[in-house]
Structure formats: C-alpha cells, structure tokens
Amino acid sequence: MTNLIIGILLLLTFFAFIYFVMRGGNIMIGFFFMALLWTIIGGISYKVAINDIFSQPALDYGSTIVVIIFGSWFGRVLVDTQIAGSISEQTIRVSHKHPIVAAILVCIVTAFIFTSSYGVGAVIAVGVILLPILESLGLPKNVSVAAFVLSVGAPMYVNIVIIKQIQLFFPKVLYGSKYLGYGFAAMIVQMLVVVIFILVHAKLIHANEEIVEEKNKNGDDILDKKSAPIYSYFIPIMPVFMNLAFGWQPIPALLLSIILALLLTGNMVSYRHCLKLINSTINKSVSDISGLLVMLFILTMFSAAAVKNTARFSAILHNIIPHNPLIIAIAFAILAPLALFRGPLMVWGAGSATAAVIAGTEFFNQYFGFALIIVPAVSMAVSACVTQSWNLWALEYTKLDPKKFLVTGVPWAWGTCALNLLLAVVMFN
C-alpha cells in the first residue's frame, strides 16, 4: 500500500514536470527539482542521496561528456576548415535544368555532413549556404526549411553526440554494429521521406534559370576564393567508418578525423596558424554545448533518482505500459507529436522522465527501449519542432511563420516516427 501511494505521488510530480516544461519552464531547473522531489518522496536515505544520486552518476557520466566535447569539436573543425561549406557549395554545380534532383542532392549532402558534425553553429554555417540554394531552385520557404531541417535530423540517428546523451538511460546500448545497423536504416527511412516530400511538392518547384545560373556563378566564385580540396570530402563520415570497419572507440576516431581535416585542408602548413585554428575551434565548440553539458550532469541525478524509485511505481506501470513491443511501438507512433515543445516524448525535455521510466521498468530489451526514445526525439522534436535551436534559427533566418513550418513538417515527421518505430520492432525483437 505504501509503494502504491508513493508511486502515485511520483507520477503526479512526473506530470507536473511535463506541465512545467511545456509551459516554458527551464529544463535544467526542472531536472534538479525532480531529482530532489523523487529523492524525498521515495524515502531515499541521506547518505544514498548524496553519494548515489547527486555525486556518483555525474562522475560516471564524465567519460560520455568527453565524447560529446570531442564530437562538438569535430563538427566545428569541419566548419572552420571549410570542408562542410565546400561540400555544400558543390551542390550548386548541379544543372538548373534539374531543380528537383538538385534539391534532393542538397538534402543528401546535408545529411552526409551531419552524420558526425553537431551543434547549432555547424547547422547555421551550412544553412546560410544551402537554404538560399533550395529557395533559388523554386522551393517555397516552408518547403525548403522543412526539407533542410528534416535532412539535418536524419543523421542524428548515427551521430555520436546524440547517441551518447541517450545512452545515459540505456547503458547497455553500444555504439557499434548492432545499433548502427538500425541507426543507418532509420536515417535512410527519414531521407526517403524527405525525397518523397520534395517530389510531392515538385509542382511548386519552378526553376528560374537566370536566378539559379547567378547562384551557380556566385557559388563558383566562393569556391574559387576559399574551399577545401575535394579529397577531404570523406572526412565527415570518417568517425563512423573507423568504428564500423576497425572497431575504434569514438575519441580516437574523432581525433584522427580532426587531424586529417586539418592536414588535408592545408591548415598544418604553419605551426602558428594551426595552433590558432585549434584553439579557436576548441573554444567555439565548448561554448556551443556549455549549457547542454551542465544540463546533462543534472539529468544524471534525476535519472539515478528515477532508477532508485522504480520499485515504487512499477506495480502501477505494469498495468499501464503494454508489454508487447508492437503495441507500444504503435502507441508511441500515434503519440509521437507529444515530443513537440519539449513534451513527454522528448528526451531532452519532459520526455527524460518517460525515458527513465521505460528504462527502469525493464519491460523491453535496452536496444528496443532506446529506439522508443530516440525515434520521437530525432524524427519529431529535432526534425520538426520550433523549440530545437537550429530550427528556430532557420525560421528567423528565412522569416518563415512558425505555424506554417509546423503544418508543413510535422505530418511528414509523424510518418517517419511510425516507420522507424515499426523498424525497431522488426530489428530488435
């Protein structure tokens, strides 16, 4: 009876947290108070709370934070060595006689870049080049922005920075062939949805030959002035390749990729210049994710409190959460829009509580549980929500109405969620 009462109180605070976040409350503060409340309500002893909730989890998460920092640094190096920009600008060379093919190519290039690159700074650096190209090809603003951010979101299924954050809840999920097989499949599914999205809007693509030709000329000028050599274009996929081909861990794979990026772009010719670029990229990359790092440390505390309280509400959840993988996948697919606005299916928002509960109940194997959480987070929240930092930047940059953006992108993101959740049922059960 005591467990039932405590379980109900814990679930009430869970819903209060969801309400708090969706009303615009600070997520980091919310995580901290949830950790406190679940510690107190759960009757966790003082010593256990200090050591096992507010100390050790953050210390244990340090190794993951290191990977996130290196991943962010690699993304900044791709931008500042002009590799990301040069790959993007090469798409301008596609003939204006084939605007639909060109638009699809732009989206594929975007996805390729962000398999390893990460951060709002990297998205902005690429977006200021590619968004005007998409519009010049005849895509309306809402279509071009939706296609671009969906393409940025797709590779997040394999991006080490994203994976490491969600591994907090599912530590048995390894960044290796088992998960990456699903990750790349889910990425391809989302990119196929992007291609269909562009084809459906093909009638709106009216190529203006003069404008596109001018864009091509301008793009050639940019490439002539400052661009990375073509033989450096494989660098964005290098960390993932080293992991799959040779079993390398993320940090050495990222370090090798950073060194090759600097070497192949001629930034190691001068020691002073190389050192200046290294210092600059490190400063920018850490600055890009500084708030995220602190939030993740606080999140480890809440996650630890949730695990300690699993027994308190497992009896309630045992009768609520479907035990059949297909049924819960269908339920998550139907409810996928709840990932919008940092809702209860958004792991970097109110959904962190959902992730903690799914992981804590152990009703499913961790790979499937991981998929349940990452799919709505990536395909809905990252790819179609205005609360995602780079999506908000894209709206402001193009002067696109947020409502129009949501109406355009959410249905396609929703469909992607359904497909990738069903894919998880097939691959992980």
Automatic annotation (TrEMBL):
Superkingdom in the source lineage: Bacteria
Membrane-spanning ranges: 6-22, 29-49, 61-79, 100-133, 145-167, 179-200, 253-269, 289-307, 327-347, 367-393, 405-428
UniProt keyword Oxidoreductase present: no
Keywords: Membrane, Transmembrane, Transmembrane helix
Record flagged with keyword Protein biosynthesis: no
Protein name (record): Citrate transporter-like domain-containing protein
Species of origin: Oenococcus oeni AWRIB429
Upper lineage: Bacteria, Bacillati, Bacillota, Bacilli, Lactobacillales
